[in-house]
Amino acid sequence: MSKLAGSTNSLAEVGKSKRLQDVPKKIYVLEDVCEEVSTALKRCGLYCKKINANEASHIATSCTDSLFILSDFSSKTFDTVCSSKNWILGPTAVLEQVSNNEPILPRKNPVYCLSMDGFNCFISSKEKEQVIHLMKLIRSMGGSVRAKLSEAMYFIAETTLASGYLYSNTYNIPTLTPQWVDYMWKNRHIPSFKCDDKTFKFFKLKPFRGLYVAFLHFPSDERSHIELLEQNQGVLVDIENPSCTHVVIDDFTLSEQFSKLKERRAQVKFVHAEWFWTCIQLESRVSENDFLFSTESDGNAAAQQTPVIFKSKNSLNWCELMIDPSLRFSLDSSQLLDESRSVQGDCCSNPKCQESHEFILEELLLTEKNYVDVLEAIKLIKEKAENENQTGGPMINVTESKQIFLNTQELLTLHKNILDGIQNARFENKGKKAFSVFCKYSDDLKTQYPKFCNGFEEARKTIRNLCSSNPRFRALLEISKNKPECGRQKLQELIHRPLQRLGSVTLLIKEILDRTDKDCKDKSILEEGLRSVEAALRLMNEELIETEKLSSVFRVYTSIKDCPISRFRKKIAIATLKNKRKEENSGKAEDEVNYKHLQLLPLHKIRKVVDVIDNNDVKDAYGLVVRETLVKDTVWCFRYMNDLENKLSKKDLVIFIAKCLARYECSGDVDKYWVALKPHEVDERLKTSLVPYQSSVKKLLCTVTEHLSPSTSKIARRH
């Protein structure tokens, strides 16, 4: 009540700012009003008189320009005062004005509270009684009702078929149900009560409210669309039901039965399934005009929305063509290639072989274009899901976006460069030199594809979870599926394509190698390109195997109660079944190594490998950046001892240790774990440590791989 005590408004001050006839001559408080109102008025210097209901009716008929404070807006006393030339306020309105240090000013209409003060509403309803009821409540809470929708702040209707609904969505006017007004009125006794965003969302008009929808040609074993319809207050009916308002069709195939049904049910709107999913995505009913199902244009619409490659299940299977040469060369290649163009520098003497080479190059170009289109489609879905300016905000957060789309943006950039290289080689008539582009981007292939494989399973799992828990994201995927760039494929299928791409390229290169003469000068280019792609494939397979191993270990870990997270286990206790004897060397550390000249370096303490570039003073040196404390790192420097037993070079050793670190951190980016520096770039305090550390490489490898998985350790020891 500190604000009430600080209020100093008086009738004199009110008279300065308002017309004299708007200032109440007297203030009457009914006896059923709480005592807090009288106390607040007295603290403001305003005199009020308490009266009962009978006195209020008598005074109201005999005087004017007086203020009555009532707590019951449905009583006979209220009706009597309303019919007189007096003003009415509710106790909540008085307390709100006093607490805000505002003068007690009467209103044109009786006002119980100020919870809707400044709200302009438009009511769209065919029931006159409902309109009058809502209008009375809105005005009693300080709001107003507009006759024009363009002047309103809120649109109130019982159904999405109400007049003005589409206009409200177009101009972002919130659409609310009448229950919102009732909810505000129920809380009229709470001073300064306002609606928050959660409350507005709860009373927002659902997209299918008041609609009776029938589904046609939807999978009979799938009920997710029915559940979404019911969640958005739609009613599922049979197509023959006379109350049916919409028929949603999920098939472009036309039938005579549909034509007859449409003629018989002219008032029903037949729409494509995309209309249904768009309403779910935007959380509002959209206009059906852009999604109407018509017999004249559906054939063309189906052809436009679906690429030729994916137009039906009986279409030509390009994977089979790629694997089985007999299927491919049964086609007339003159229909696909320009016979006047030849591959310059082709050493194959057989004309049929040259023709097959050209066909394979064309197929490489075609499949690379299709693959880039798939990555572009994934990028488009990503941008739509992350768009912050759309209705309802972004569909997924940053973490979910990274889990789903992984490094597809980097893959798109990489394969755009590869596609440009293939097109340039084809334009310059360099023939099989087009495959050299895979050698050029070999390092990028080895980096990006293992990184994608590492999070592929998690991406599929996240998509499944979001489809069941996020209707807007599910609707986006259903809408995108029918787009030409997606080829009737869902995101779950598109995200699988990067795992297949390098395998198809390998088959193409192997096939063209089989049809290339041994003395062909371009054969070495093909073999080098094949090695580059196969190296990336090996890394992908290793990453998939390692991910599966870690997943199995994690499943075991989750099944063990109170299992520590650290991968390095330490002895906790030893149980003995004999008498305790005197301990020897009790001052010795428990984990101390028993070897005099060896020190155990756990892999989790190594942050990075340093390849020290040779100069006149320092040669064959490398270092390990070791984490000593949370804020301090140091470098352990070694000299590489080259002998007959070591088949690895210093660079190979550095990369091997970096791979071990990347595998331990479950990362596909090996380059992040090693760096090449000149001796003077190493910390000056550690330059003196660039002395020969007389230990063989074999001992170092055994030390580094001590804490790797058994399978990894075996691979390391083979070197």
UniProtKB/TrEMBL annotation:
<feature type="domain" description="DH">
    <location>
        <begin position="356"/>
        <end position="543"/>
    </location>
</feature>
<dbReference type="InterPro" id="IPR049395">
    <property type="entry name" value="ECT2_PH"/>
</dbReference>
<dbReference type="GO" id="GO:2000431">
    <property type="term" value="P:regulation of cytokinesis, actomyosin contractile ring assembly"/>
</dbReference>
<dbReference type="GO" id="GO:0005938">
    <property type="term" value="C:cell cortex"/>
</dbReference>
<feature type="domain" description="BRCT">
    <location>
        <begin position="203"/>
        <end position="293"/>
    </location>
</feature>
<protein>
    <recommendedName>
        <fullName>DH domain-containing protein</fullName>
    </recommendedName>
</protein>
<dbReference type="InterPro" id="IPR001357">
    <property type="entry name" value="BRCT_dom"/>
</dbReference>
<dbReference type="GO" id="GO:0005096">
    <property type="term" value="F:GTPase activator activity"/>
</dbReference>
<dbReference type="InterPro" id="IPR000219">
    <property type="entry name" value="DH_dom"/>
</dbReference>
<dbReference type="InterPro" id="IPR035899">
    <property type="entry name" value="DBL_dom_sf"/>
</dbReference>
<dbReference type="GO" id="GO:0005634">
    <property type="term" value="C:nucleus"/>
</dbReference>
<dbReference type="Pfam" id="PF00533">
    <property type="entry name" value="BRCT"/>
</dbReference>
<dbReference type="Pfam" id="PF00621">
    <property type="entry name" value="RhoGEF"/>
</dbReference>
<dbReference type="InterPro" id="IPR036420">
    <property type="entry name" value="BRCT_dom_sf"/>
</dbReference>
<dbReference type="InterPro" id="IPR001331">
    <property type="entry name" value="GDS_CDC24_CS"/>
</dbReference>
<dbReference type="Pfam" id="PF21242">
    <property type="entry name" value="ECT2_PH"/>
</dbReference>
<dbReference type="GO" id="GO:0035556">
    <property type="term" value="P:intracellular signal transduction"/>
</dbReference>
<dbReference type="GO" id="GO:0000281">
    <property type="term" value="P:mitotic cytokinesis"/>
</dbReference>
<dbReference type="InterPro" id="IPR026817">
    <property type="entry name" value="Ect2"/>
</dbReference>
<dbReference type="GO" id="GO:0007399">
    <property type="term" value="P:nervous system development"/>
</dbReference>
<dbReference type="GO" id="GO:0005085">
    <property type="term" value="F:guanyl-nucleotide exchange factor activity"/>
</dbReference>
